[in-house]
Specification:
The protein is α+β, with helices and mostly antiparallel strands and about 170 residues long. About 20% of the residues lie in helices and about 40% in strands. It is built from three helices and ten strands; from the N terminus they run αββααββββββββ.
Length: about 170
């Protein structure tokens, strides 16, 4: 049993290291999905690669469980995708995604999981009251990249359809 767990842990770590290596891919098309608990409000959430698929089941279950302990609410994003445009290799950039609680219950963001170690999240930790806004900031370090890159982070909160996907793209110049 311990051997199996060790192999799984090593596989996850190896995948994490590989996912942050140099990427040269074009930005994929985007889709939006509703994040709502009733028929009167919807929020855009980008779909695509999923960190949930890369995370061990126990981590995924923990994020889902802590977010689902709260009564559900609805949200709206000012935008779920951001393009940094051309940036110099090694530059550290950040973007703030604004999230508005459009529901009737407090919004609790339990976790923001980036798809790669090159992206570090920061987010509003306290409950966001109905009608109020919170922030999710993604900090990106372009040191190990060249060309076009596309990255994401999954937001776990007390909404019906989670995770909420945030994405960004950049064209890394030497």
């Amino acid at each position: 049993m311990k051997k199996t767990l060790s192999i799984i842990a090593m596989s996850v770590m190896a995948f994490g290291m590989v996912s942050c290596k140099k990427e040269n891919k074009e930005t994929a098309g985007t889709e939006t999905a509703a994040t709502t608990t009733d028929s009167t409000a919807a929020a855009p959430a980008l779909t695509g690669d999923s960190a949930a698929a890369m995370a061990p089941a126990s981590e995924q279950a923990t994020a889902d469980a802590s977010a689902s302990k709260q009564p559900l609410t609805t949200v709206a994003l000012s935008g779920s995708n951001f393009d940094f445009g051309k940036i110099k290799k090694g530059e550290k950039v950040q973007h703030i995604y604004e999230i508005t609680n459009t529901g009737s219950n407090p919004l609790v963001i339990s976790e923001v999981k980036p798809g790669c170690g090159c992206t570090v999240p920061d987010f509003t930790k306290e409950p966001i009251m109905p009608g109020k806004k919170g922030k999710i900031t993604l900090h990106f370090d372009s040191t190990n990249f060249e060309g076009n890159v596309s990255k994401f982070a999954d937001v776990f909160a007390n909404v019906e359809k989670m995770p909420i996907k945030l994405t960004f793209t950049a064209n890394i110049q030497p």
